[in-house]
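# nightly structure sweep
# worker-07 picked up a monomer target from the shared queue
# config: single-sequence mode, recycle default, output format = structure tokens
# input follows
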Amino acid sequence: MTATDGVGQPTVVCLGSLNMDMRVDLSQAPLSGETVMANSMHYLPGGKGANQALGCVRQGARVYMVGNVGADAHGASLVRGLQADGIDTNHVLTDPHSPTGVAMVLVEQTGQNRIVVVGGANQTLRVHAAALEPVLRTADVLVMQLETPVSEVLAAARLAQVNGCKVVLNPSPVQGALPTALWPLVDTLVLNETEAFALCGTDVSVNRNAAIQAVRHFQLLGVPRVVITLGGAGAVAADGEVLTYHPAPQVQVVDTTAAGDTFLGALVVGLARKFLFTQCVRQGIAAASLCVQTAGAQASIPTLAQTMESAPVPDWETL
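# output follows
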């Protein structure tokens, strides 16, 4: 029995990274061998795992964060930030031998970004079945990414399956081919154009047929539901045999950092509430469209109330 069957507050477990982002604002990212002057720099809480946890909690879920930080000021600050949003951090452990993960985020005037991550304590994360299993038994969804060891992602997915908890995977950043045993354990796969190309070799930006080809590739690997996000062009989604295209509203882009994590958080909470898959995708697009209009990672992730009050998302189309 999961935490909710469409009524009440859903429960989500996020296993993943916690990073301190060093955001650098500049007119244009440097070319190879080039030095440029930046406009400003800020230290901001981030990490795909933590961002997605916040995306879920701000959409109304009860969230448990599972991860590692270092025994340093960055780690303490990141944990306090999650707790301030009501996230359970009892499963965030401190590694006394590794620093907290950091990410250098270069943000251009167009809002586009380039990110370099130093994993630190994220890379020493280990799945402790005795501690994680009781939480998974009461959870609706386990959310994971790839800023932590793939071996632990696989171990957690297996544990979730045994305990009746659905798995949502965001294979980012791509670090080569994933274990074939992982794909059938994933209930919903959420990835962007770059990740889709890296994992299946199809350039989904060419046309919708290419995106459909990529979606079907992942379904053949054993994933029943797939969403490929296309930035400002929206998303292509598959729920079994049903294929849909979801356009995005046109907005002024300030910063795309955490847009994908925001999309995933809203989609996951919709899944946990047993909403229709098309509705979950539309909710994700609405939240991400708000996110890109604000600078920063976690500060830009909207609440459920803000998402519901946002401009309407265009209707989806059956492909």
